[in-house]
Q: What sequence folds into this?
């Protein structure tokens, strides 16, 4: 039975909009296949409706309730994978999630999202967007998630709503992050900027400083040569893997008191300045594999919380007995759960067992060169 269309709510809408009815039926058939009866005889196509308008619904029969070929249901407008070249018109004004991914949209125009005051999630992933009008988002006063990955954007869009909590804009052509790009965006929690042609000179000092609540920033697989300056102290995870960073300066991590995970693998780091680890007192995971380190970073033995430290595939030629553990026994607060040192010039038989005297779980240590990566 087509119970969806039988409910008073939907029937009212069907009948109020006779010229869209076939489209609506297509939607119902796709979305909720009949349970064997085929289209039931109860489904009226000619009978004059007795219209009972619901207060939430747009007035007047000329207002279509969903763009052609999209599916609109429970305030979700689903318009993905339709080969669309532009944002469709007449998206229901009460939409909270608009999915336009996997289309061929090239441009976002000034009025494309006009009036969508309730929109919380806008998905534009995998289109061909090169331009977003500076006022395109001005109606979206409740937008929380903006997904723009896999497009051809050369810059971060202007005037992103201040309500935004999550911005994903990886795999674009962005080569500049200006301080103004994120001005006043105090609600952002997640920022994903990876796989863009960014270099350190293209990132303004303090570009992220206004993100007072951000907990996750990922700028992986770009051309950064240093850790961006002036990162917010709220950061919990920072992923900068796959860049061209040559050095970890103590200064770059200053004030990151809450940082728990730091990803710096696949860079060109030869030095971690002494004092770097002291600036991130709550760090639990540090990924430094596939770099050019010649020594184990200083400060691990004194660090209270570090549990995972990946150092494989570097140029470490010697490991000292106090590199990981403080002098004496049972003096380390947190337990190591992962230490990797394989694929370094140091022969594993030259690393003395007492080096890991504070590691209680021996399987946490990956030392030999047997592990291929
Ligand atoms: C980084 O720079 C190199 C050389 O200039 C370039 O070939 C490469 O595409 C850049 N990488 C990214 C992610 O932009
Ligand atoms: C650090 O984390 C704690 C606990 O989650 C939180 O209360 C505090 O506000 C955070 N500090 C900053 C600077 O965000
Ligand atoms: C790092 O700095 C601390 C404190 O200044 C010092 O005691 C220690 O010897 C230094 N370690 C290295 C490897 O330079």
A:
């Amino acid at each position: 039975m087509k119970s969806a269309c039988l409910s008073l709510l939907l029937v009212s809408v069907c009948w109020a909009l006779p010229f869209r009815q076939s489209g609506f039926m297509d939607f119902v058939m796709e979305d909720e296949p009949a349970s064997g009866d085929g289209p039931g005889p109860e489904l009226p196509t000619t009978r004059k409706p007795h219209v009972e308008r619901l207060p939430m619904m747009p007035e007047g029969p000329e207002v279509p309730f969903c763009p052609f070929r999209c599916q609109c249901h429970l305030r979700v407008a689903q318009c993905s994978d339709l080969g669309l070249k532009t944002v469709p018109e007449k998206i229901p004004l009460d939409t909270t999630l608009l999915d336009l991914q996997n289309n061929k949209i090239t441009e976002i125009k000034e009025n494309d999202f006009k009036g969508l005051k309730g929109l919380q999630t806008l998905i534009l992933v995998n289109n061909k967007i090169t331009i977003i009008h500076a006022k395109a988002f001005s109606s979206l006063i409740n937008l929380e998630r903006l997904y723009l990955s896999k497009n051809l954007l050369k810059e971060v869009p202007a005037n992103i709503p201040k309500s935004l909590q999550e911005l994903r804009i990886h795999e674009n052509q962005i080569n500049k992050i200006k301080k103004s790009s994120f001005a006043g965006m105090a609600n952002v929690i997640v920022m994903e900027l990876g796989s863009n042609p960014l270099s350190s000179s293209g990132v303004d000092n303090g570009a992220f400083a206004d993100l007072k609540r951000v907990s996750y920033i990922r700028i992986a697989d770009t051309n950064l040569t240093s850790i961006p300056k002036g990162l917010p102290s709220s950061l919990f995870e920072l992923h900068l893997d796959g860049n061209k960073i040559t050095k970890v300066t103590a200064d770059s991590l200053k004030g990151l008191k809450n940082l728990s995970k730091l990803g710096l693998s696949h860079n060109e780091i030869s030095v971690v300045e002494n004092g770097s680890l002291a600036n991130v007192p709550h760090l639990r995971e540090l990924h430094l594999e596939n770099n050019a380190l010649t020594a184990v970073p200083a400060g691990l033995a004194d660090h209270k919380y570090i549990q995972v430290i990946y150092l494989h595939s570097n140029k470490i030629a010697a490991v000292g007995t106090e590199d990981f553990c403080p002098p004496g026994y049972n003096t380390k607060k947190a337990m190591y759960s992962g230490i990797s040192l394989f694929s370094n010039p140091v022969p594993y038989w030259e690393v003395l067992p007492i080096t890991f005297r504070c590691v209680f779980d021996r399987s946490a240590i990956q030392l030999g060169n047997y592990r291929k990566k």
